[in-house]
Design a protein that fits this description.
The chain is globular. The termini are far apart. 62% of the residues lie in helices and 0% in strands. It has one domain (6-207). With 209 residues, it is mainly alpha-helical. The protein is built from twelve helices and no strands.
Length: 209
């Protein structure tokens, strides 16, 4: 589906208000796409989180849809806002965008949102993604983020969806070997689980003062 600038639907202001606004040295979308927000002692943390949480409460569903219909920066930001607010009405939309993988860089944010929702339905979306994309050993998309999110949900729900992916010489190991030949290093499942949990804990501890 081709992207559509929010201006075409009357929401041109959402880019500056939610995506490129600066609560630090970099635009919000850049911070959300980096690991800086998890760095201890980050000097912008208090202001960044306060404004992010305020915006999760203020943004409307229509504004989120306008962001999700545009390019990767706006989709990444929208998915974070949806995840922080646990706006589960967007589950199907987020799942469709993840599976379609139309644009780069935003998939990790979709996985974060699904991890934040925290239900069996979200685990099923992540499982479907891994079933589809792990056999593609020629593609490095969002397989690591999806596995980390699914491991997080397994721990939360007491389920074992990841077991068949991470068994020795299973789909995960085969995919890692494949993308290694393309020059892509990949963290271990334990590290991917840790990163997802850190992102969710960061949100939990700061979005409910």
């Amino acid at each position: 589906m081709p992207s559509q600038h929010p201006e075409k639907t009357g929401y041109g202001y959402v880019i500056e208000r939610y995506v490129t606004r600066k609560d630090s040295d970099h635009p919000r979308c850049a911070e959300l796409g980096s690991a800086r927000i998890l760095r201890p002692g980050w000097r912008h943390a208090e202001r960044f989180v306060r404004h992010l949480v305020d915006d999760t409460a203020a943004i409307t569903d229509a504004e989120l849809e306008a962001l999700l219909a545009y390019e990767w920066r706006s989709r990444l930001t929208a998915a974070w806002l949806i995840g922080v607010d646990r706006r589960e009405s967007f589950r199907e939309r987020i799942g469709d965008l993840l599976l379609a993988s139309e644009v780069c860089y935003s998939g990790g944010a979709y996985c974060f949102a699904l991890a934040r929702f925290g239900t069996q339905a979200d685990a099923e979306i992540l499982t479907a993604y891994l079933d589809h994309y792990l056999p593609r050993t020629d593609l490095h998309y969002d397989q690591p983020a999806a596995l980390g999110a699914l491991l997080h949900l397994d721990a939360r729900l007491g389920t074992h969806h990841t077991g068949r992916f991470t068994e020795p010489d299973g789909l995960w190991d085969q995919w890692v070997r494949g993308v290694a030949r393309l020059g892509y290093p990949v963290d271990t499942p334990a590290e991917l689980h840790r990163w997802t949990s850190l992102h969710c804990a960061f949100t939990d501890t700061r979005s409910h003062p």
